[in-house]
From TrEMBL:
A motif (Nudix box) lies at residues 89-111. The keyword Lipoprotein does not apply. Mg(2+) 2 binds at E104. Residues 46-185 form the Nudix hydrolase domain. One of its GO terms (cellular component) is cytosol. Mg(2+) 1 binds at A88, E108, E156. InterPro entries: NDP_pyrophosphatase, NUDIX_hydrolase-like_dom_sf, NUDIX_hydrolase_CS, NUDIX_hydrolase_dom. This is ADP-ribose pyrophosphatase.
Amino acid sequence: MTQDRKVEVVKKETPFQGYFRVDRYHLRHSQFQGGMGNVVSREIFERGHAAGIIPYDPVRDEVVLIEQFRPGAFAAGDPDPWMIEVVAGIVDEGETPEDVARRESVEEAGVILDNLHPIGRFYMTPGGSSESITLFVGQCDASKAGGIHGLDEEGEDIRVFTEPFDTAHRMVLNNRINNAMTAMAVLLLASCRETLRKEWA
């Protein structure tokens, strides 16, 4: 934050604490035309930070994707709340995003990653959530990917499949992939794909 930009927290409450947490902030902040604004109250969904990984086979030019039911899409009224996604997981205390990338690739997709290439860190819904997601491309052997994965104790039922990169790219462009994190991962992979194929193949 630059020196002339300030945020003053007047009060902070936690009205809900469950698997996730909701904090209520009463705050005011610097205004573009100068001075401080009025106090505003905002609820923030606090779910921690996450890592997302698109496993990529540079030899076969294929990506590994997953599909699973998402209650948020169901609650939004989506007629098909099974989302096509990249592998992802929450960063627990003491872990790095890289740790999560490797762990979740095994748990959710059954693939072991070799090299990891970071492609960005993003806030997905900063108007109402503190969550950030660090995205990676992970080198893998896509010939070994497939089947149903996930942890029973977490209620996961995850279908794993592979697609040629060009097909996955078209799926983003025609909105067949409508999960924002996954779309970003595919589009960012497009920007570095040829370089990674030379380095990893």
